[in-house]
């Protein structure tokens, strides 16, 4: 009888030990801790960078300064022609033209505060755009004097299509639905003065995720290497635009855009 009691006690002791070991090995749950004060100091230190511009090669994008001008227009006119009269055009353009923040990739964003903010604004908990990144992109394309009033845009769009602004964190969330953007196709370039060029462009849009083809005038995609010839052949069916750019302090800046009267 005594032997049975000893065996039972030993079994209970071993079982208790195993349970205790399981409890000790289980990772403790930690509540997210956020410091608004320290985040205000951290956020400006997150890397600022402009998204690369996809320049579609044409006869004139191979010239100098054609490539530089095509690269400028590819960013500054990324929302044309659909949003040309939008009051929030500069803000939306800047949001599309910044690399934004990705945890673990963007320098300066590997902090507890950054992880907390990402979880708060992004379903995947990995991305957001800081106000500093937006303002950097706006100055890059529209000049140092540009001013930004931060708010969710487009204001009249469904929430899934908006860059939603979180004022308490000073960041934007990416839209759940991918925005539509356009590529200005450089068809002509004429020198107007020593620092002014007049560009002729039409706007094309990607036809698929591979980004090697663009929509033509019907449902058939046009290959990247054929798009210049295709557009020139159908030029009377396109809305053509005249864009004026000026070189100031060694950089090209957008000075104006309007529909062309003649091709």
Task: Describe the secondary-structure layout.
Elements: H1 2-25, H2 36-42, H3 66-76, H4 89-97, E1 101-102, H5 112-121, E2 127-130, H6 131-142, E3 164-166, E4 171-173, E5 183-193, E6 196-204, E7 213-215, E8 221-223, H7 227-233, E9 241-248, E10 251-259
Helix pairs in contact: 4-6
- Content of β-strand: 15-25%
Q: Which spans have pLDDT < 50 for at least 5 consecutive residues?
A: 1-31
Report the C-alpha radius of gyration, rounded.
27 Å
The overall pLDDT average reads 87
Structure commentary:
- There is one protein chain.
- The protein contains 7 helices and 10 strands.
- It has helices at residues 2-25, 36-42, 66-76, 89-97, 112-121, 131-142, 227-233; strands spanning 101-102, 127-130, 164-166, 171-173, 183-193, 196-204, 213-215, 221-223, 241-248, 251-259.
- The strands form 3 sheets. It has a 4-stranded antiparallel β-sheet. Strands 5-6-9-10 form a 4-stranded antiparallel β-sheet. A two-stranded antiparallel sheet has the order 7-8.
- Helix 4 (89-97) crosses helix 6 (131-142).
- Mean pLDDT is 87; it is low at 1-31.
């Amino acid at each position: 009888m005594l032997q049975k009691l000893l065996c039972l006690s030993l079994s209970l002791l071993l079982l208790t030990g195993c349970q205790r070991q399981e409890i000790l090995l289980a990772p403790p749950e930690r509540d997210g801790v956020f410091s608004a004060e320290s985040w205000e100091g951290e956020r400006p230190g997150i890397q600022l960078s402009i998204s690369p511009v996809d320049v579609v090669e044409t006869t004139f994008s191979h010239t100098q300064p054609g490539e530089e001008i095509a690269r400028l227009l590819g960013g500054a006119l990324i929302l044309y022609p659909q949003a040309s009269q939008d009051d929030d055009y500069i803000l939306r353009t800047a949001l599309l033209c910044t690399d934004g923040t990705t945890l673990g990739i963007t320098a300066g964003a590997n902090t507890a505060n950054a992880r907390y903010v990402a979880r708060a604004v992004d379903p995947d908990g990995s991305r957001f755009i800081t106000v500093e990144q937006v303002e950097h992109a706006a100055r890059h394309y529209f000049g140092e004097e540009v001013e930004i009033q931060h708010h969710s845009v487009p204001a009249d769009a469904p929430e899934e299509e908006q860059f939603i602004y979180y004022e308490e964190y000073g960041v934007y969330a990416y839209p759940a639905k991918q925005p539509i953007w356009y590529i200005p196709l450089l068809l002509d370039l004429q020198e107007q003065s020593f620092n002014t060029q007049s560009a002729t462009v039409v706007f094309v849009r990607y036809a698929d995720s591979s980004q090697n083809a663009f929509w033509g005038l019907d449902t058939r995609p046009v290959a990247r290497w054929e798009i210049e010839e295709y557009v020139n052949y159908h030029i009377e069916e396109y809305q053509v635009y005249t864009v004026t750019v000026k070189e100031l302090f060694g950089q090209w800046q957008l000075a104006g855009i309007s529909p062309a009267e003649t091709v």
